[in-house]
Every structure is written in C-alpha cells, then in structure tokens.
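In response to reviewer comment 3 from the previous cycle, which asked for concrete evidence that the modeling workflow produces usable outputs, we include below a single protein chain processed end to end. The sequence was submitted unchanged, and the resulting structure tokens are shown without manual editing.
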Amino acid sequence: MTLYDRAALATALARVPGFQRVAADDFEELAADGIAHAHVRVRGYGRLVRIPRFSQVASDARAHLDYQAVCFARAAPAGVTPRLFGMLEPAAGLPMGGLVVEEILGRVPDLVRDLPALAASLARLHGLALPPPPERPPLVDHTADPLAGARAHLARQAKGLDDDATAAVLAPAARAILLEELAALAPLLDRLGVAPQPASLIAFDCHPGNFLVEPSGRAVLVDLERVQYGTPASDLAHATLPTSTLWDRRVDVALPRPALETFYAAYRGALDADRAAQLRPWLAPFRRLIFLRSATWFVRFLGETRAGRWSAGSLDPDFLAEVERRIRALLEPARLDAIRDEWRGHAPFDPGACF
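The workflow returned the following structure tokens.
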C-alpha cells in the first residue's frame, strides 16, 4: 500500500487553515524511527503530518484518526505533548489520512541523564484531572479497575503463546520462561486486587524512543496513538524496562539500578503523600506485567511479520529487518532471564522503596 502521494497530501493539507499555499515540494519524509506511522515534515511551517501505516486501535482509517485526535486533545493540558492542528481525511492518494501536529525540535533521550525529565513529563500527564465517566469515550477506560483492564489485555496477547505458529518464531526455552512468568504473576496480582487502585490518563506506549528532549530540558511525548485511562504504574514500568529501553535502536541501553531509583524518586517528588501511598504497592507488580505485555507483543509481531502485515504498511525492508533482529535478541532466553533477574535475583529491585 502506498501511504500517500505528494499531490494528494498537498490538496488535503490546503484545507487546513494556514496551509492554503502549501505545495508538494514542501514535503520531506523523515527517516523511519517507529513502525506505526510515517512522518512528513512540512518545510517552513514547523509542522509534521503524521500518517498511520495501519491501525492498532480501531477497525477503519477514520475511526483510528478520530481516536488519535482525542489522544492529543486529552493530553494537551499537561503541556508535554505536541499540539494538534488538524486532521486530514482518508482519501484517494491518502488512504489512511493523517494528523497535522507540531514538530518538536529535540533529541532522543540520553536515557540515564534524562530520566528525571521523562519522570516529570509523565507526572504531568498522570496529574491531569479525570473527566466524568460520560466524557471519557472514545478512549479505552479502565478507571474502575485498572488491574483488570491490564490483565485482560495481557491475556489476549498471551494466547499467542499457545498458537501453532509460535513455535516458528519463539525458542522453546523462551516460551517456557514466559509461561513461567505468567503463572507466577497471577497469584501476585490476585493478592493486590483489593487494594485501592490509582487511575489517570496514561500514555500506554511510552518507551523512551517516543520522547524528544528539547534544549530547555522538557521531555515531550510525541507518540499518542494509544492514550487511555489506566494506572500510572503501567507507564512507569514501560518507560524503563529493558524490553523498552533496548527496543529503540536510538536509545539502546539497559538501565542500571541507580538510574531506576533516580527515575522513580523523581516521579515520587511530583506526588502528594496520599497519591504516593496509593501507587506504591502497584509499582513492582506492574513491572512484571508490562514485561510480559511487551514480550508477548514481540511474539505477536514476529508472527504477523511472517504473515506480511508489517510490510503492507510501506516500511523500509531494511528497517523492518532491524526491528525484527532487535525483537529476536530481546526474546533470547538469556536476555529474558537477565530481565527477570530484577525480581527473581538475590536482591530484587523494589521501586516502591523509592516512594
């Protein structure tokens, strides 16, 4: 599938206020740094067109754009996300449509150094007031029971571990590790089910490669495809687990324990005592849950790669091959064992101790 042609993109963009004079030669497609979107710079405007390659949140192109637009709108008051300037309807020559967003001029995080900035931005996002229940759609809303929502999502993905196709993409020892972790996690989460659960707007997908750090030091979360209502513990884990920090080739670092302690302590500094106490018991269990959520998504990705789904989104074959290589490395049994040593080793890391 061709994501866009320049003439169609120019025609669509000219309907957005302020872009009436845009021309096809004003566009510059940025190098791919993620799998779900292409980003096209509109030179001289300080804007990007964010063009989906496929949808992870809706069944059709327009519904996907609508969801993403709400993600940007709900996150905007936090002041740590790009501004949204318009929507381009799906059309001939632009089958997935697009969103016109602010171009953030920043760098990929130097993760150990920039962890406090990431923590501060997540705290601002999580600190937004929850809207009344009728105003939360169309975003996924697990406010009533964030744990149940997270467990249901993991259970759907974990079914792939029993598919016949899994054997072709996952080593038996790796599958055994993931199944062992799933079994160990269940009673741990069952014990927490009666504890009060904090809920907020969350990024859901906040691996460090989804941030850009501006010269001012502000960390801007630039990928808002899957924003929803859930527990902040999910984002804190996803921002710092090796399955996230080693996922993006531009970040590519496994965080040492002192860096993790700095991150959680920096986040704690933005909370009042009651909020910190409510969140504390969920931090360590959600690191284990999000590890499994990421690992089972990797398995799904490899299976769908074999079926040709990702190449249908106009991804560069060399980039796609690099993504697959990194995923296979993260699913090596030795790597999985190294990651889970965080909670199974002789000195388990407890992020709650930083609170």
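The CA atoms of residues 130 and 200 lie 6 Å apart. We consider this sufficient to address the reviewer's concern, and the full set will be provided in the supplementary archive.
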